[in-house]
Specification:
With about 325 residues, the chain is an all-alpha fold. It has one domain: Rhopdopsin 7-helix transmembrane proteins (Up-down Bundle). Helices cover about 75% and strands about 5% of the residues. The protein is built from 11 helices and 3 strands, in the order βααβαααβαααααα. A 3-stranded mixed β-sheet has the order 2-1-3. The N and C termini lie far apart (about 75 Å).
Length: about 325
């Protein structure tokens, strides 16, 4: 583009479902229900991991961080999306967009690294049970969780900093529900190959490296499980890591489906398919945080017992207050 077309943007227009006004109310109700479930489910997991002394272990410390992360990640963009569904004004300020990009990318990166740490925790618990308390001491798992957050913040700071320094032209329409970093980059009237290279390096380091750690950990776990002679013993050991493995498969499986599926020329030029891709991407960001607490509660006896204990405690307190 010509440099005279360059301007200082003060806001972006989020396209979202602008072409489908009748669907906006339906999706408002659906997304609102899902958001409430996310807050209740993940909030409950955080609460029981703090209040129940039996859950003061590395695994539940990581799980509490994951639940807090999911709440933060969805809160970054869901409230603004809900407002846009009901409002004719679908704009976001440049600074607000930058903050949304920063927080979204930071949370996403942190979750990738945290899932890798949780896989390592399961590997030590199953393959080196006698040394578990030594290897996964508080002096180890707290810095591991903190390191995940630091990695996410550093990666997001670098990538978001590079994007906000790009010159933007008159086109301010982001073809998404929120300020997704790649969608914003495409609006720049400058060569973004450097930004794309940084993104590729960051994706390799902070997405594929944790995935490699997960694959190695679970390969060793499976080998260890297969050495157990009794089927009951194998089932009992596998149940300790099945919830985490299910979350990993859903998390990375959806990413691979979204970004590695082949796209024909018709797909690339089709507005309907473009809308479908946006919806898949959006609901991926909502569905995963919503089902995580369900998976951990349904497939984990400790969590079930902790929830029952919390409910009984609440009922007893309420009864005691009424009796007074």
């Amino acid at each position: 583009m010509e440099w005279e077309n360059q301007t200082i943007l003060v806001e972006f227009f989020l396209k979202g479902l602008s072409g489908y006004p009748r669907l906006e109310l339906l999706f408002f109700v659906l997304v609102l229900i899902m958001y409430v479930v996310i807050l209740l489910g993940n909030g409950t997991l955080i609460l029981i991991s703090i209040l129940d002394s039996h859950l003061h272990t590395p695994m539940y410390f990581f799980l509490g961080n994951l639940s807090f992360l999911d709440i933060c990640y969805t809160t970054v963009f869901i409230p603004s999306v809900l407002v846009s569904f009901l409002s004719e004004k679908k704009t976001i300020s440049f600074s607000g967009c930058a903050m949304q990009m920063f927080l979204g990318l930071a949370m996403g990166t942190t979750e990738c690294v945290l899932l890798g740490m949780m896989a390592f925790d399961r590997y030590v618990a199953i393959c080196n049970p006698l040394r578990y308390s030594v290897i996964m001491s508080k002096g180890s798992y707290v810095p591991m969780a903190a390191g995940s957050w630091i990695v996410g913040i550093v990666n997001s700071t670098v990538q978001t900093g590079c994007v906000v320094q790009l010159p933007f032209c008159r086109n301010n329409v982001i073809n998404h529900f929120a300020c997704e970093i790649l969608a914003v980059m495409k609006l720049a009237c400058a060569d973004i190959s450097g930004n794309e290279f940084i993104m590729l390096v960051a994706t390799t380091l902070f997405t594929m490296t944790p995935l490699l750690l997960i694959i190695i950990s679970y390969t060793l776990i499976i080998i260890s499980i297969l050495r157990i002679r009794s089927s009951e013993g194998r089932s009992k050991v596998f149940s300790t890591c099945s919830a985490h493995l299910t979350v990993v498969i859903i998390f990375y499986g959806t990413i691979l489906f979204m970004y590695m599926k082949p796209k024909s020329k018709e797909t690339l030029n089709s507005d309907d398919m473009d809308t479908t891709d946006k919806l898949v991407s959006f609901f991926y960001g909502v569905m995963t945080p919503m089902i995580n607490p369900l998976i951990y509660s349904l497939r984990n006896k400790d969590v079930k017992e902790a929830v029952k204990h919390l409910l009984r405690r609440k009922i007893l307190i309420s009864k005691w207050k009424r009796d007074r």
